[in-house]
Protein backbone atom coordinates (compact mmCIF):
# COMPACT_ATOMS: atom_id res chain seq x y z
CA UNK A 1 0.00 0.00 0.00
CA UNK A 2 1.23 3.49 -0.84
CA UNK A 3 0.80 4.83 2.70
CA UNK A 4 2.73 8.02 1.84
CA UNK A 5 0.19 8.97 -0.81
CA UNK A 6 -2.65 8.00 1.57
CA UNK A 7 -1.28 10.35 4.19
CA UNK A 8 -0.90 13.07 1.59
CA UNK A 9 2.89 12.85 1.65
CA UNK A 10 3.34 11.85 -1.98
CA UNK A 11 5.30 14.08 -4.32
CA UNK A 12 2.17 15.30 -6.12
CA UNK A 13 0.51 16.37 -2.90
CA UNK A 14 3.78 17.99 -1.85
CA UNK A 15 3.78 19.87 -5.17
CA UNK A 16 0.16 20.93 -4.58
CA UNK A 17 1.11 22.16 -1.11
CA UNK A 18 4.03 24.19 -2.50
CA UNK A 19 1.76 25.56 -5.23
CA UNK A 20 -0.71 26.78 -2.61
CA UNK A 21 2.10 28.40 -0.62
CA UNK A 22 3.25 30.51 -3.58
CA UNK A 23 2.00 34.09 -3.40
CA UNK A 24 0.25 34.49 -6.76
CA UNK A 25 0.50 38.27 -6.46
CA UNK A 26 4.31 38.18 -6.27
CA UNK A 27 5.27 35.93 -9.13
CA UNK A 28 8.59 36.79 -10.85
CA UNK A 29 7.68 38.39 -14.16
CA UNK A 30 10.79 37.06 -15.82
CA UNK A 31 12.53 33.79 -14.96
CA UNK A 32 15.81 32.86 -16.65
CA UNK A 33 17.26 29.36 -16.46
CA UNK A 34 20.69 27.85 -17.06
CA UNK A 35 19.68 24.24 -17.66
CA UNK A 36 22.90 22.65 -16.44
CA UNK A 37 23.74 19.02 -15.78
CA UNK A 38 22.37 17.08 -18.75
CA UNK A 39 25.78 15.53 -19.41
CA UNK A 40 26.24 14.47 -15.77
CA UNK A 41 22.72 13.05 -15.68
CA UNK A 42 23.57 10.86 -18.67
CA UNK A 43 27.02 9.90 -17.37
CA UNK A 44 25.55 8.71 -14.07
CA UNK A 45 23.42 6.30 -16.08
CA UNK A 46 26.11 5.24 -18.55
CA UNK A 47 24.14 6.88 -21.33
CA UNK A 48 25.41 9.14 -24.13
CA UNK A 49 25.36 12.88 -23.37
CA UNK A 50 22.76 13.35 -26.12
CA UNK A 51 20.31 11.27 -24.07
CA UNK A 52 20.85 13.69 -21.19
CA UNK A 53 19.92 16.61 -23.43
CA UNK A 54 16.84 14.76 -24.65
CA UNK A 55 15.80 14.21 -21.04
CA UNK A 56 16.51 17.91 -20.48
CA UNK A 57 13.94 18.79 -23.12
CA UNK A 58 11.43 16.53 -21.36
CA UNK A 59 11.99 18.47 -18.15
CA UNK A 60 11.21 21.67 -20.00
CA UNK A 61 7.61 20.69 -20.67
CA UNK A 62 6.39 20.87 -17.06
CA UNK A 63 8.44 24.01 -16.41
CA UNK A 64 6.74 25.81 -19.30
CA UNK A 65 3.34 24.51 -18.17
CA UNK A 66 3.95 25.80 -14.65
CA UNK A 67 5.06 29.21 -15.93
CA UNK A 68 1.86 29.40 -17.99
CA UNK A 69 -0.19 28.36 -14.94
CA UNK A 70 1.47 31.01 -12.74
CA UNK A 71 1.17 33.67 -15.45
CA UNK A 72 4.91 34.35 -15.65
CA UNK A 73 5.51 36.86 -18.48
CA UNK A 74 8.95 35.72 -19.67
CA UNK A 75 10.91 32.49 -19.44
CA UNK A 76 14.43 32.71 -20.86
CA UNK A 77 16.26 29.45 -21.50
CA UNK A 78 19.98 29.11 -22.13
CA UNK A 79 19.84 26.43 -24.83
CA UNK A 80 23.16 26.90 -26.65
CA UNK A 81 25.97 29.34 -25.93
CA UNK A 82 28.51 30.87 -28.30
CA UNK A 83 31.05 28.77 -26.37
CA UNK A 84 29.14 25.51 -26.92
CA UNK A 85 30.57 25.29 -30.47
CA UNK A 86 33.68 23.89 -28.73
CA UNK A 87 31.76 20.67 -27.96
CA UNK A 88 32.18 17.53 -30.09
CA UNK A 89 30.45 17.80 -33.47
CA UNK A 90 28.13 14.92 -32.60
CA UNK A 91 26.83 16.70 -29.49
CA UNK A 92 26.37 20.00 -31.35
CA UNK A 93 24.36 18.22 -34.02
CA UNK A 94 22.27 16.43 -31.41
CA UNK A 95 21.47 19.73 -29.67
CA UNK A 96 20.51 21.42 -32.96
CA UNK A 97 18.32 18.45 -33.96
CA UNK A 98 16.67 18.41 -30.54
CA UNK A 99 15.80 22.07 -30.87
CA UNK A 100 14.34 21.55 -34.34
CA UNK A 101 12.42 18.48 -33.15
CA UNK A 102 11.17 20.27 -30.04
CA UNK A 103 9.90 23.31 -31.92
CA UNK A 104 8.35 21.17 -34.65
CA UNK A 105 6.58 18.80 -32.25
CA UNK A 106 5.59 21.18 -29.47
CA UNK A 107 4.61 24.23 -31.50
CA UNK A 108 0.87 23.38 -31.80
CA UNK A 109 0.58 22.82 -28.03
CA UNK A 110 2.65 25.90 -27.19
CA UNK A 111 0.55 27.97 -29.59
CA UNK A 112 -2.68 26.60 -28.09
CA UNK A 113 -1.46 27.76 -24.66
CA UNK A 114 -0.77 31.27 -25.95
CA UNK A 115 3.01 30.88 -25.72
CA UNK A 116 5.04 33.32 -27.79
CA UNK A 117 8.45 32.11 -28.95
CA UNK A 118 11.37 34.51 -29.23
CA UNK A 119 15.08 33.94 -29.74
CA UNK A 120 18.14 35.67 -28.29
CA UNK A 121 21.46 35.29 -30.06
CA UNK A 122 22.99 35.11 -33.50
CA UNK A 123 20.34 33.10 -35.34
CA UNK A 124 22.06 33.68 -38.71
CA UNK A 125 25.06 31.74 -37.35
CA UNK A 126 23.00 28.56 -36.82
CA UNK A 127 22.71 25.66 -39.27
CA UNK A 128 20.10 26.75 -41.82
CA UNK A 129 17.40 24.22 -40.84
CA UNK A 130 17.69 25.20 -37.16
CA UNK A 131 17.51 28.91 -38.00
CA UNK A 132 14.52 28.21 -40.25
CA UNK A 133 12.62 26.30 -37.54
CA UNK A 134 13.33 29.03 -34.97
CA UNK A 135 12.09 31.74 -37.36
CA UNK A 136 9.02 29.68 -38.18
CA UNK A 137 8.14 29.28 -34.49
CA UNK A 138 8.61 33.02 -33.91
CA UNK A 139 6.37 33.90 -36.85
CA UNK A 140 3.72 31.32 -35.93
CA UNK A 141 3.37 32.60 -32.35
CA UNK A 142 4.03 36.31 -32.87
CA UNK A 143 0.50 37.41 -31.97
CA UNK A 144 0.25 35.31 -28.82
CA UNK A 145 -0.18 37.19 -25.57
CA UNK A 146 0.74 34.55 -22.99
CA UNK A 147 4.11 33.41 -21.68
CA UNK A 148 7.02 34.55 -23.85
CA UNK A 149 9.68 31.85 -24.09
CA UNK A 150 13.00 33.39 -25.07
CA UNK A 151 15.38 30.75 -26.33
CA UNK A 152 18.98 31.87 -25.99
CA UNK A 153 20.71 30.03 -28.79
CA UNK A 154 24.14 30.83 -30.20
CA UNK A 155 24.02 33.41 -27.43
CA UNK A 156 26.84 34.87 -25.37
CA UNK A 157 26.47 37.94 -23.23
CA UNK A 158 29.85 39.46 -24.12
CA UNK A 159 29.15 38.97 -27.83
CA UNK A 160 25.75 40.59 -27.28
CA UNK A 161 27.36 43.61 -25.58
CA UNK A 162 29.99 43.89 -28.35
CA UNK A 163 27.21 43.81 -30.97
CA UNK A 164 25.36 46.54 -29.05
CA UNK A 165 28.50 48.71 -28.87
CA UNK A 166 29.07 48.30 -32.63
CA UNK A 167 25.47 49.25 -33.42
CA UNK A 168 25.59 52.23 -31.05
CA UNK A 169 28.82 53.50 -32.66
CA UNK A 170 27.33 53.03 -36.13
CA UNK A 171 24.22 54.98 -35.09
CA UNK A 172 26.35 57.77 -33.63
CA UNK A 173 28.53 57.96 -36.76
CA UNK A 174 25.39 57.88 -38.91
CA UNK A 175 23.90 60.79 -36.86
CA UNK A 176 20.92 58.68 -35.78
CA UNK A 177 22.01 58.92 -32.15
CA UNK A 178 23.93 61.49 -30.12
CA UNK A 179 26.33 60.72 -27.28
CA UNK A 180 24.18 62.73 -24.87
CA UNK A 181 21.25 60.38 -25.52
CA UNK A 182 23.25 57.37 -24.33
CA UNK A 183 21.98 55.94 -21.07
CA UNK A 184 21.84 52.62 -19.22
CA UNK A 185 18.29 52.11 -20.51
CA UNK A 186 19.30 52.95 -24.07
CA UNK A 187 21.99 50.27 -23.95
CA UNK A 188 19.24 47.78 -23.02
CA UNK A 189 17.50 48.70 -26.30
CA UNK A 190 20.56 47.54 -28.26
CA UNK A 191 20.70 44.11 -26.59
CA UNK A 192 18.95 40.99 -27.92
CA UNK A 193 16.56 41.39 -24.97
CA UNK A 194 15.32 44.83 -26.13
CA UNK A 195 11.79 45.32 -24.82
CA UNK A 196 12.06 42.41 -22.38
CA UNK A 197 12.23 43.31 -18.68
CA UNK A 198 15.37 42.25 -16.80
CA UNK A 199 15.08 38.80 -15.21
CA UNK A 200 13.74 38.81 -11.64
CA UNK A 201 14.95 35.30 -10.90
CA UNK A 202 17.78 33.33 -12.48
CA UNK A 203 17.95 29.62 -11.75
CA UNK A 204 20.97 27.40 -12.41
CA UNK A 205 20.81 23.70 -11.69
CA UNK A 206 23.63 21.27 -10.77
CA UNK A 207 25.44 23.35 -8.18
CA UNK A 208 27.65 25.49 -10.44
CA UNK A 209 27.62 29.02 -9.06
CA UNK A 210 28.40 31.20 -12.05
CA UNK A 211 26.61 33.02 -14.85
CA UNK A 212 28.68 31.55 -17.71
CA UNK A 213 28.27 34.56 -20.01
CA UNK A 214 24.46 34.63 -19.66
CA UNK A 215 22.56 37.94 -19.42
CA UNK A 216 25.46 39.75 -17.72
CA UNK A 217 24.08 43.27 -18.29
CA UNK A 218 20.47 42.30 -17.66
CA UNK A 219 21.12 40.34 -14.45
CA UNK A 220 22.58 43.28 -12.50
CA UNK A 221 19.78 43.07 -9.90
CA UNK A 222 18.44 39.59 -10.59
CA UNK A 223 17.93 37.22 -7.68
CA UNK A 224 20.16 34.19 -8.23
CA UNK A 225 19.10 30.68 -7.24
CA UNK A 226 21.54 27.80 -7.47
CA UNK A 227 20.34 24.29 -6.77
CA UNK A 228 22.32 21.62 -5.00
CA UNK A 229 24.86 19.84 -7.22
CA UNK A 230 22.82 16.66 -7.01
CA UNK A 231 19.89 18.34 -8.71
CA UNK A 232 20.66 18.05 -12.42
CA UNK A 233 18.49 19.76 -15.06
CA UNK A 234 16.65 16.61 -16.27
CA UNK A 235 15.40 16.15 -12.67
CA UNK A 236 14.25 19.75 -12.27
CA UNK A 237 10.46 19.62 -12.11
CA UNK A 238 7.43 21.67 -11.09
CA UNK A 239 8.14 21.07 -7.41
CA UNK A 240 11.69 22.41 -7.78
CA UNK A 241 10.49 25.45 -9.72
CA UNK A 242 7.94 26.20 -6.99
CA UNK A 243 10.71 25.90 -4.38
CA UNK A 244 12.80 28.41 -6.34
CA UNK A 245 9.86 30.83 -6.58
CA UNK A 246 9.14 30.48 -2.86
CA UNK A 247 12.79 31.28 -2.12
CA UNK A 248 12.56 34.29 -4.46
CA UNK A 249 9.47 35.49 -2.59
CA UNK A 250 11.47 35.53 0.66
CA UNK A 251 14.19 37.76 -0.78
CA UNK A 252 14.19 41.51 -0.14
CA UNK A 253 15.19 43.38 -3.29
CA UNK A 254 16.87 46.66 -2.48
CA UNK A 255 18.49 47.66 -5.80
CA UNK A 256 21.32 49.33 -3.88
CA UNK A 257 18.92 51.23 -1.63
CA UNK A 258 17.67 50.16 1.78
CA UNK A 259 14.83 47.92 2.85
CA UNK A 260 11.82 50.23 3.37
CA UNK A 261 11.01 48.37 6.61
CA UNK A 262 14.55 48.85 7.98
CA UNK A 263 14.90 52.43 6.82
CA UNK A 264 14.60 55.35 9.16
C1 LIG B 1 24.06 22.13 -20.07
O1 LIG B 1 24.31 20.81 -19.65
C2 LIG B 1 23.03 22.13 -21.07
C3 LIG B 1 23.19 22.56 -22.37
C4 LIG B 1 24.46 23.08 -22.88
C5 LIG B 1 22.09 22.48 -23.34
C6 LIG B 1 20.71 22.70 -22.81
C7 LIG B 1 19.79 22.32 -23.88
C8 LIG B 1 18.64 21.63 -23.75
C9 LIG B 1 18.02 21.26 -22.45
C10 LIG B 1 17.90 21.18 -24.98
C11 LIG B 1 17.48 22.19 -26.00
C12 LIG B 1 16.67 23.30 -25.48
C13 LIG B 1 15.44 23.68 -25.91
C14 LIG B 1 14.96 25.04 -25.55
C15 LIG B 1 14.52 22.82 -26.69
P1 LIG B 1 25.76 20.19 -19.88
O2 LIG B 1 25.76 19.42 -21.13
O3 LIG B 1 26.78 21.28 -19.79
O4 LIG B 1 25.84 19.24 -18.63
P2 LIG B 1 27.15 18.84 -17.83
O5 LIG B 1 27.69 20.10 -17.20
O6 LIG B 1 26.62 17.87 -16.82
O7 LIG B 1 28.09 18.22 -18.80
Tell me what you see in this structure:
The chain is α/β, with parallel strands linked by helices and 264 residues long. It has a domain at 26-156 and 198-250: Decaprenyl diphosphate synthase-like (Undecaprenyl pyrophosphate synthetase), CATH 3.40.1180. 44% of the residues lie in helices and 13% in strands. It contains 9 helices and 6 strands, in the order ααβααβαβαβααββα. It has helices at 3-6, 11-21, 38-43, 49-69, 89-112, 128-140, 157-173, 184-189, 238-250; strands at 30-34, 74-81, 116-120, 148-155, 201-204, 223-226. It has a 6-stranded parallel β-sheet, sandwiched between helices. Helix 6 (128-140) links the parallel strand 3 (116-120) and strand 4. Helix 4 packs parallel to helix 5 and helix 5 (89-112) runs parallel beside helix 6. The protein is globular, with a radius of gyration of 20 Å. The N and C termini lie far apart (58 Å). The relative contact order is 0.17. Bound molecules: farnesyl diphosphate. Farnesyl diphosphate binds at residues 35-40, 53, 56-57, 77, 79, 84, 95, 98-99, 102, 151.
